[in-house]
Amino acid sequence: MRLTAIAAILLSAAGLAAEDKPVRIFMYSEYIDPALAETFKARTGYTLDVQLYEAQEEMIAKLQTGGTDQYDVLVATGLLVKQMVALKLVQPLDQALIPNKANVGKQFLDTAFDKGNTYSYPYFWGTSGLMYDPAKVQGEPTWAWVMDPAKAPGPFTLLDEARTTLGSALVWQGKSMNSRVPAEVKAASEAVGAAKHSPKCLGFAGGVDGKNRVVGGEAVVAMVYNGDAARGIADKPGLQYAIPKEGAEIWCDLMLISAKAPNKAGAHALINFLLDAEVAAQNANFIQYASPVEAAKPKIKPELLNNPAIYPSAEVMKRLTYLEDLGKDSRMWDAAWTSVKSQ
Amino acid sequence: MASHLVVDGYLTTRPRLYGRGGLLIAGAFLWMGLFLFAPLGGLAGLAFAQRGEYGGVEWIFSWANLTRLAGWDEFGFSWSHLTILWRSVWLATVTTLLCLLLGFPMAFWIAAKRPAQRPLLLALVMVPSCVNLVIRTYAWQQFLGSQMPAAWLAQSLGLVPEGAALYPTVTAVYLGMVSCMLPFTVLPLYTSVERLDWSLVEAARDLHAGRWRTFRHGILAQCMPGLLAATILTFIPALGMFVISDMLGGAKFLLVGNLIQQQFGSMNDWPFGAMAGLFLVLASLVALWGLRIVSEREAPHHGARR
Questions:
Q1: Quick one: which of A340, B102, B141, B263 has the most CB atoms within 10 Å?
Q2: Is the pLDDT of residue B103 over 50?
Q3: What is the DSSP string of A196-250?
Q4: Distance of CA A299 to the CA centre of its chain
Q5: What are the domain boundaries of chain B?
Q6: Which domain does A165 fall in, by range?
Q7: What is the pLDDT of residues A90-142, one digit of tens each?
Q8: How far is residue A295's CA from residue A103's CA, in Å, rounded to a whole number?
């Protein structure tokens, strides 16, 4: 206890002394409100330096090849945390320096991918589900629309993501999205393979591409991420996004501290800053993804808060599952995905 | 004592001669060593290592990646990987043939123009390559979209259903592939065609050779070096290409390029990716070797002396 207190004093002293030391955050582009840099500087004295990656694999590759001393805060999806810890790319957090963790909603703390939040706190979260043209479908949204060619209401696209697409097929078949049973995964891959060969299938696409095809009227339904859907619905208001009745994936992007972060104190200050209620609300209003910071909700625009594509109802939340790192079983999933895409 | 030699009119010694030669090739040697052989060696080493439980590499020697590439995976034997490899070779072969069929007449056409016009026409062949491949492929997507004239035409002819786009289809993939690779076919063909010795063609005619024999022995034999270069420059890049098939083919079918990308990307299995990459390099070398055998058999002997 005393050590932590001394450390805190020393760190805050260092913070005052080294005023212009930048805090480097490594994330997707357009994933933070640029206006927050000034607020951060005013509150902590640190300069915010945003470094961008295009794909999370690119981030891991950069860190693995000795980049851990280039960044302070890393934004990565929950699925990657176990791997990042195993590869020694991140370091445990000093919990005393992040008092704003109290602002985070309970369901986003102590999750399966980081028990006790030793390494991470949540940044934004979302889902993957179905975006569709309500005029051309019937009944409750179901994965059958894209997994069962006989029940597909029209042309559709699947997500070009092994875990999400096979996982959704598993959920549709009443199995776990994180199944480690080869027979179940194989059955899911056969379902996706059959869907692929349907003349209604327009192929595997990224979230943006799938959204564009529904907006353009070429597809009736597409598997997309909720952020893409929200943008698509803004372009063409009649469209809808829903979590299928069987359930779907929930993902959460986390903030972690790089193993050799050059500015450890600044990294903690930044995580704490982004968990501040007002800051998180401003950021959420800008990015338009769902914020896990519960205390920010009163300041988030009502049109975002009441949009079920962004903040699903409590009832829908119960049907969402996080993807888990499958360790050695990921090779089995790889084989299943390869067989879907090779035949 | 070193014996003296006279080379190119200069008195020198053997060690000095070797020293000078060594210095001259040192640059290329270093370049090849650092940027070709060292990475290739690394790739070969990685190909026989293993993926750690959470990604990363465990340096334990194993044949597992090789048997896996051959088809033995977690579900027993499957044709998946062999199908992918075969599909990649097939796509590259058909693309190369289509490019040659289109490129050969194009090279003749350009070579037949007035000398002042030729550079402009060659530049026009090259201009599309100045635009990034992904952007060009996006342009094809737009062009083949459901609201565009090409799709309207196909819809009104009843070739595709009402409101459908012309991609993802196999035709769209070949369209993208050929338009991307054609410059690499035309340029080497053109250099061959331009230097064609027409007196040999006349000689063939004078000796009462038919049209086919005149073409085969009078023209084609002379164009062989260009034809081989065009084949290599088209086939090998086409073998590793996957952006076009993903964007215009709906990413429904994997190619070897996808397989490699998937391992280094989302699957985080670098050793298996290295094995697939090694296979691609070896397949390219075998193709080159095969073409060399053909070229040695076919090469016009007068060409070497000219």
A1: A340
A2: yes
A3: HHSTTEEEEE-HHHHHHHHHTTS-SEEEEEHHHHHHHHHHSTT-EEE--TT-EEE
A4: 22
A5: 79-305
A6: 126-250+316-342
A7: 999 999 999 999 999 998 999 888 999 999 999 999 999 999 999 999 999 99
A8: 5
| Residue labelled with tokens 């090259």 | B126
Cα separation, A303 vs A55, whole angstroms: 30
For every residue of B210-264, which 3-state class applies, written as one string? CHHHHHHHHHHHHHHHHHHHHHHHHHHHHHHCCHHHHHHCCCCCCCHHHHHHHHH
| Residues A85, A217 within the same domain | no
| Cβ proximity of A128 and A252 under 8 Å | no
Are residues A159 and A261 located together in one domain of the fold?
Answer: no
Q: Give yes or no for residue B105 having a pLDDT over 80.
A: yes
Of A193, A235, A228, the residue nearest A208 (C-alpha): A228
Residue A281 has a pLDDT of 96
- For residues B6-38, b (16+ Cβ closer than 10 Å) or e, as one string? eeeeeeeeeeeeeeeeeeeeeeeeeeeeeeeee
Residues 6+ apart with CB under 8 A from B12: B4, B5, B6
CATH number, domain B79-305, options 1.10.760.10, 3.30.300.30, 1.10.3720.10, 1.10.510.10: 1.10.3720.10
Can you read off the two tokens belonging to residue A208?
């943006």
Kind plus residue range of the DSSP H or E element containing B279 = helix B270-298
Residues in B closer than 8 angstroms to A90, CB to CB, are none
Name the 3-class secondary structure at A290. Answer: strand
Closest alpha carbon within chain A to B260: A338
Contact A327 B53 (CB under 8 A): yes
B303 pLDDT higher than 60: no
Specify whether A110 is located in the same domain as A222: no
pTM of the model: 0.80
Residue A338: list chain B partners with CB under 8 A.
73, 80-81, 84, 254, 259, 262
Please tell me whether residues A133 and A240 are part of one structural domain.
yes
Cβ contacts of A204 on chain B, cutoff 8 Å: 250-252
pLDDT confidence band for B49 (50 / 70 / 90): very high
Assess contact for A52 and A292: CB atoms under 8 A: no
pLDDT of residue B48 exceeding 70: yes
What are B161-190's pLDDT values in tens digits?
887 888 888 999 999 999 999 999 999 999
Do the Cβ atoms of B53 and A57 come within 8 Å? no
Instruction: Report the range out of A178-192, B42-56, B127-141 with the highest average pLDDT.
Output: A178-192
Looking at residue A61, its pLDDT comes to 85
Q: How far apart are CA B287 and CA B292, in angstroms?
A: 9
